[in-house]
Amino acid sequence: MQHYRYRGSRKQRYAPPHSRIITWIFFSVIACIxxxxxxxxxxxxxxxxxxxxPETTPVFAPxxxxxxxxxxxxxxxxxxQIARGPLILVNNEHLCEFxxxxxxxxxxxxxxxxxxxxxxxxxxxASIIDPFNEMMETFYQFTGYSDVMAASGxxxxxxxxxxxxxxxxxxxxxxxxxxIARPGGSEHHTGYVIDLSIxxxxxxxxxxxxxxxxxxxxxxxxxxxxxxRYPQDxxxxxxxxxxPWHFRYVGKPHxxxxxxxxxxxxxxxxxxxQYPFEKGHLQVTDGDDVTYEIYYxxxxxxxxxxxxxxxxSYEISGNNxxxxxxxxxx
Length: 330
Ligand SMILES: [Zn+2]
What we know:
The chain is an alpha+beta fold. It has three domains: 2-54; 63-87 and 263-330, Phosphorylase Kinase, domain 1; 98-249, Muramoyl-pentapeptide Carboxypeptidase, domain 2 (2-Layer Sandwich), CATH 3.30.1380. The chain has nine helices and 14 strands. Strands 3, 5, 6, 7, 8 and 9 form a six-stranded mixed β-sheet that branches. It has a four-stranded antiparallel β-sheet with strand order 10-11-14-13, with helices on one face. Zinc ion (ZN) binds next to strand 6. Residues 188, 193, 195, 246 line the site of zinc ion.
């Protein structure tokens, strides 16, 4: 009897092995369902916020803005001036405004030492000949190499139309539309561009690839205000294949900052909007220890009041999209 009770009590306290396994499996399945449900609840909103992020926050984390104690006054700028200046963005989405322009000069007429010019028709903005001459002279002093040639500068709309049509005939319209700027969409319309090539003793012009001695130019051009406008890792953003020969003048602090932060012009024009005048400004210091202050002013209809410092030199450039960028030399 005692023995029976003992067996009976064991029966009540310990379930037989098969029913313990079933219970264990049951609770394991329940636990898995709960964990999976929690994971979906936590991860899905996180994923959703990840995909929405570009719409709500800037693509790039900004370099901290600075507050300065400069005194400002306001100058009135007409809206069409957003299409003028060394920071204008020109591509197939933001076409060049062909305003009357008398500031183009022949590179040949103002040529410095240490490089060649393909012919007298290569024209650029007068304001960029000095930095270009300085860059090429320093390059020549460093390398002793004098066969780099200024091959192409300003292009008219008609000139770009011929280039586009020839490429379309040769490679088909789809390829041309992918890799060649449309008439109006070429940076060469701005006059802030110089394409380089290599001159040979036979009088030929070879492709400039930015290697060998020429690597110096591609690595140092930002100190003279130029950028390699179509880098290898930005083709999806620029819409133009890698062009190591195409140098675009944007101004020294901008070129230095774009190079340091690895931003192409499409990215930089968006980036700089994180520094509107009312908030902090972007400060950039060049290799000569000159510091610049940069800020953005959105354009209004008609005239825009652009704040400029009372007693510092400054430059105002349009961005060819929606506003002005002010560069102050401190
Ligand atoms: Zn070019």
